[in-house]
Amino acid sequence: MFASTSQWREIEDSWVLLPSTQKGIVHFLGGAFLGTAPHISYRWLLEEIASQGYVVIATPFNQSFDHGAIARDVFYSFEDCLAYLQGRSLLKKSYLPIYGLGHSMGCKLHLLMGSLFTVERAGNILISFNNYAAKDAIPMMDQMNIGNMEFIPSPLETQAIIQKSYQVSRNLLIKFSNDNLDQSLRLSDLLRLRFPQMTSIQRLNGTHLTPLSQDIRWQVGETFTPLDAIGQWFKQEFNRDLYNLKNEVLRWLNPAG
Known about the structure:
Blueprint: E1 9-11, E2 14-17, E3 24-29, H1 38-41, H2 43-51, E4 54-58, H3 67-87, E5 98-103, H4 105-116, E6 123-127, H5 134-137, H6 155-165, E7 171-178, H7 184-194, E8 199-207, H8 226-253
Parallel strand pairs: 3-4, 3-5, 5-6, 6-7, 7-8
Antiparallel strand pairs: 1-2, 2-4
Helix pairs in contact: 3-4, 4-6
Protein backbone atom coordinates (compact mmCIF):
# COMPACT_ATOMS: atom_id res chain seq x y z
CA MET A 1 0.00 0.00 0.00
CA PHE A 2 1.46 3.35 -1.01
CA ALA A 3 2.26 5.64 1.91
CA SER A 4 0.82 9.10 1.21
CA THR A 5 1.59 12.33 3.03
CA SER A 6 -1.62 11.96 5.02
CA GLN A 7 -0.09 8.90 6.69
CA TRP A 8 2.82 10.78 8.24
CA ARG A 9 2.61 10.84 12.03
CA GLU A 10 4.62 13.03 14.37
CA ILE A 11 5.86 10.81 17.20
CA GLU A 12 8.43 11.78 19.84
CA ASP A 13 9.93 14.59 17.73
CA SER A 14 10.21 12.40 14.61
CA TRP A 15 8.03 11.97 11.53
CA VAL A 16 6.94 8.39 10.95
CA LEU A 17 5.46 6.30 8.14
CA LEU A 18 3.99 2.94 9.17
CA PRO A 19 3.23 0.71 6.17
CA SER A 20 0.89 -2.22 6.63
CA THR A 21 3.65 -4.66 5.65
CA GLN A 22 6.84 -4.15 7.67
CA LYS A 23 10.19 -5.77 6.90
CA GLY A 24 12.60 -3.20 8.31
CA ILE A 25 13.05 0.26 9.81
CA VAL A 26 14.82 3.14 8.05
CA HIS A 27 16.06 6.03 10.18
CA PHE A 28 16.46 9.05 7.92
CA LEU A 29 18.47 12.23 8.51
CA GLY A 30 18.54 14.99 5.90
CA GLY A 31 20.99 17.70 5.01
CA ALA A 32 21.78 20.97 6.76
CA PHE A 33 18.73 23.26 6.99
CA LEU A 34 16.72 20.86 4.81
CA GLY A 35 16.80 18.43 7.72
CA THR A 36 14.37 20.58 9.70
CA ALA A 37 11.43 19.14 7.73
CA PRO A 38 12.60 15.85 6.19
CA HIS A 39 9.04 14.55 5.65
CA ILE A 40 8.51 17.47 3.26
CA SER A 41 11.96 18.01 1.72
CA TYR A 42 12.50 14.32 0.97
CA ARG A 43 8.85 13.30 0.75
CA TRP A 44 8.87 11.30 -2.48
CA LEU A 45 11.96 9.21 -1.75
CA LEU A 46 10.86 8.39 1.80
CA GLU A 47 7.32 7.50 0.80
CA GLU A 48 8.63 5.22 -1.95
CA ILE A 49 10.80 3.42 0.62
CA ALA A 50 7.81 3.06 2.95
CA SER A 51 5.68 1.70 0.10
CA GLN A 52 8.09 -1.23 -0.12
CA GLY A 53 7.50 -2.26 3.49
CA TYR A 54 9.94 -0.18 5.50
CA VAL A 55 8.91 1.81 8.55
CA VAL A 56 10.40 5.27 8.00
CA ILE A 57 11.45 7.37 10.99
CA ALA A 58 12.65 10.78 9.80
CA THR A 59 14.14 12.84 12.62
CA PRO A 60 14.35 16.61 12.08
CA PHE A 61 17.10 18.73 13.57
CA ASN A 62 18.04 22.39 13.79
CA GLN A 63 21.38 23.56 12.45
CA SER A 64 24.17 24.53 14.83
CA PHE A 65 27.96 24.36 14.92
CA ASP A 66 27.89 21.53 17.47
CA HIS A 67 27.32 18.49 15.29
CA GLY A 68 28.13 16.18 18.18
CA ALA A 69 25.23 17.62 20.16
CA ILE A 70 22.92 17.29 17.15
CA ALA A 71 23.95 13.63 16.76
CA ARG A 72 23.17 13.04 20.43
CA ASP A 73 19.76 14.72 20.15
CA VAL A 74 18.67 12.81 17.04
CA PHE A 75 19.94 9.56 18.56
CA TYR A 76 17.77 9.99 21.66
CA SER A 77 14.82 11.21 19.61
CA PHE A 78 15.02 8.07 17.48
CA GLU A 79 15.31 5.83 20.53
CA ASP A 80 12.28 7.51 22.13
CA CYS A 81 10.28 7.13 18.92
CA LEU A 82 11.24 3.46 18.61
CA ALA A 83 10.25 2.81 22.23
CA TYR A 84 6.87 4.48 21.59
CA LEU A 85 6.21 2.32 18.53
CA GLN A 86 7.24 -0.84 20.38
CA GLY A 87 5.28 0.03 23.51
CA ARG A 88 2.05 0.56 21.55
CA SER A 89 2.52 -2.50 19.34
CA LEU A 90 2.69 -0.38 16.19
CA LEU A 91 5.50 -2.56 14.85
CA LYS A 92 4.20 -5.80 13.35
CA LYS A 93 7.19 -7.96 14.32
CA SER A 94 9.19 -8.36 17.52
CA TYR A 95 12.39 -7.79 15.52
CA LEU A 96 12.89 -5.55 12.51
CA PRO A 97 16.38 -4.71 11.15
CA ILE A 98 17.23 -1.02 11.47
CA TYR A 99 19.05 0.85 8.71
CA GLY A 100 20.41 4.39 8.76
CA LEU A 101 19.84 6.58 5.70
CA GLY A 102 21.48 9.98 5.50
CA HIS A 103 21.95 12.73 2.95
CA SER A 104 24.80 15.24 3.10
CA MET A 105 25.13 16.38 6.73
CA GLY A 106 22.77 13.55 7.70
CA CYS A 107 25.59 11.16 6.75
CA LYS A 108 27.94 12.82 9.23
CA LEU A 109 25.31 12.54 11.96
CA HIS A 110 24.82 8.82 11.29
CA LEU A 111 28.59 8.33 11.35
CA LEU A 112 28.89 10.18 14.66
CA MET A 113 26.00 8.21 16.16
CA GLY A 114 27.58 4.98 14.99
CA SER A 115 30.87 6.01 16.61
CA LEU A 116 29.84 7.70 19.86
CA PHE A 117 26.77 5.68 20.88
CA THR A 118 25.79 2.03 21.04
CA VAL A 119 23.51 1.67 18.03
CA GLU A 120 21.97 -1.44 16.53
CA ARG A 121 22.12 -1.06 12.76
CA ALA A 122 21.95 -3.65 10.01
CA GLY A 123 23.70 -1.06 7.87
CA ASN A 124 23.92 2.57 6.80
CA ILE A 125 23.26 4.19 3.42
CA LEU A 126 25.23 7.43 3.12
CA ILE A 127 24.27 9.70 0.21
CA SER A 128 26.49 12.63 -0.82
CA PHE A 129 28.58 12.68 2.35
CA ASN A 130 30.43 15.90 3.05
CA ASN A 131 32.59 16.96 5.97
CA TYR A 132 33.71 20.47 5.11
CA ALA A 133 35.03 23.04 7.54
CA ALA A 134 32.56 25.74 8.55
CA LYS A 135 34.24 28.40 6.40
CA ASP A 136 33.76 26.20 3.32
CA ALA A 137 30.28 24.94 4.18
CA ILE A 138 28.61 28.25 5.09
CA PRO A 139 28.42 30.89 2.32
CA MET A 140 29.82 34.32 3.23
CA MET A 141 30.89 33.13 6.68
CA ASP A 142 33.76 35.62 6.62
CA GLN A 143 31.22 38.44 6.36
CA MET A 144 28.98 37.19 9.19
CA ASN A 145 31.18 38.47 12.00
CA ILE A 146 31.31 35.14 13.84
CA GLY A 147 35.06 34.81 14.03
CA ASN A 148 36.84 31.55 13.37
CA MET A 149 34.07 29.28 14.60
CA GLU A 150 34.36 25.65 13.55
CA PHE A 151 32.06 22.67 13.64
CA ILE A 152 32.34 20.35 16.64
CA PRO A 153 33.87 17.92 15.94
CA SER A 154 35.98 19.50 13.22
CA PRO A 155 36.50 17.70 9.89
CA LEU A 156 39.82 16.20 11.04
CA GLU A 157 38.35 15.22 14.41
CA THR A 158 35.38 13.62 12.64
CA GLN A 159 37.70 11.52 10.50
CA ALA A 160 39.63 10.40 13.57
CA ILE A 161 36.43 9.46 15.40
CA ILE A 162 35.20 7.40 12.44
CA GLN A 163 38.55 5.69 11.96
CA LYS A 164 38.79 4.74 15.64
CA SER A 165 35.24 4.06 16.79
CA TYR A 166 32.68 3.61 13.99
CA GLN A 167 30.69 0.43 14.70
CA VAL A 168 28.34 -0.12 11.73
CA SER A 169 30.01 -2.69 9.51
CA ARG A 170 27.78 -2.71 6.38
CA ASN A 171 27.76 0.56 4.45
CA LEU A 172 26.66 1.79 1.05
CA LEU A 173 28.04 5.14 -0.11
CA ILE A 174 26.26 6.88 -3.00
CA LYS A 175 28.12 9.51 -5.02
CA PHE A 176 26.45 11.54 -7.79
CA SER A 177 28.23 12.37 -11.03
CA ASN A 178 27.67 16.15 -10.77
CA ASP A 179 28.19 16.86 -7.08
CA ASN A 180 31.00 19.22 -6.12
CA LEU A 181 30.10 18.97 -2.42
CA ASP A 182 30.58 15.21 -2.20
CA GLN A 183 33.45 13.67 -0.19
CA SER A 184 32.37 10.04 -0.41
CA LEU A 185 35.68 8.81 -1.83
CA ARG A 186 37.60 9.93 1.26
CA LEU A 187 34.94 8.38 3.49
CA SER A 188 35.14 5.15 1.52
CA ASP A 189 38.87 4.96 2.23
CA LEU A 190 38.24 5.39 5.96
CA LEU A 191 35.46 2.81 6.16
CA ARG A 192 37.36 0.26 4.12
CA LEU A 193 40.16 0.37 6.68
CA ARG A 194 37.64 -0.82 9.27
CA PHE A 195 35.28 -2.96 7.18
CA PRO A 196 36.99 -3.78 3.88
CA GLN A 197 34.51 -6.46 2.80
CA MET A 198 31.33 -4.63 3.82
CA THR A 199 31.83 -1.15 2.38
CA SER A 200 30.72 -0.36 -1.16
CA ILE A 201 30.38 2.84 -3.18
CA GLN A 202 27.88 3.34 -5.98
CA ARG A 203 28.20 6.12 -8.55
CA LEU A 204 24.93 7.42 -9.97
CA ASN A 205 23.97 10.18 -12.36
CA GLY A 206 22.61 13.21 -10.56
CA THR A 207 23.48 16.18 -8.38
CA HIS A 208 23.70 16.94 -4.69
CA LEU A 209 19.99 17.83 -4.79
CA THR A 210 18.75 14.66 -6.51
CA PRO A 211 17.39 13.12 -3.25
CA LEU A 212 15.19 16.22 -2.84
CA SER A 213 13.53 15.79 -6.23
CA GLN A 214 9.81 15.15 -6.44
CA ASP A 215 8.05 12.96 -8.97
CA ILE A 216 6.29 14.82 -11.80
CA ARG A 217 2.91 13.21 -12.26
CA TRP A 218 1.36 13.42 -15.73
CA GLN A 219 -2.36 12.74 -15.77
CA VAL A 220 -3.37 11.01 -19.00
CA GLY A 221 -6.86 11.79 -20.28
CA GLU A 222 -9.43 9.33 -21.58
CA THR A 223 -7.66 9.37 -24.94
CA PHE A 224 -3.89 9.07 -25.18
CA THR A 225 -2.69 11.99 -27.29
CA PRO A 226 0.68 13.04 -28.74
CA LEU A 227 0.86 15.59 -25.91
CA ASP A 228 0.51 12.75 -23.42
CA ALA A 229 3.39 10.95 -25.13
CA ILE A 230 5.56 14.04 -24.78
CA GLY A 231 4.51 14.44 -21.15
CA GLN A 232 5.33 10.82 -20.34
CA TRP A 233 8.72 11.11 -22.04
CA PHE A 234 9.51 14.32 -20.14
CA LYS A 235 8.47 12.69 -16.86
CA GLN A 236 10.70 9.69 -17.54
CA GLU A 237 13.73 11.80 -18.45
CA PHE A 238 13.26 14.32 -15.63
CA ASN A 239 12.84 11.63 -12.99
CA ARG A 240 15.46 9.18 -14.23
CA ASP A 241 18.12 10.09 -11.64
CA LEU A 242 15.60 10.08 -8.80
CA TYR A 243 14.25 6.66 -9.80
CA ASN A 244 17.76 5.25 -10.11
CA LEU A 245 18.52 6.47 -6.58
CA LYS A 246 15.34 4.91 -5.22
CA ASN A 247 16.04 1.61 -6.95
CA GLU A 248 19.64 1.49 -5.68
CA VAL A 249 18.53 2.17 -2.09
CA LEU A 250 15.84 -0.52 -2.23
CA ARG A 251 18.16 -3.03 -3.91
CA TRP A 252 20.74 -2.60 -1.15
CA LEU A 253 18.11 -2.86 1.59
CA ASN A 254 16.81 -6.11 0.15
CA PRO A 255 19.42 -7.74 -2.13
CA ALA A 256 17.30 -10.88 -2.49
CA GLY A 257 14.48 -8.83 -4.03
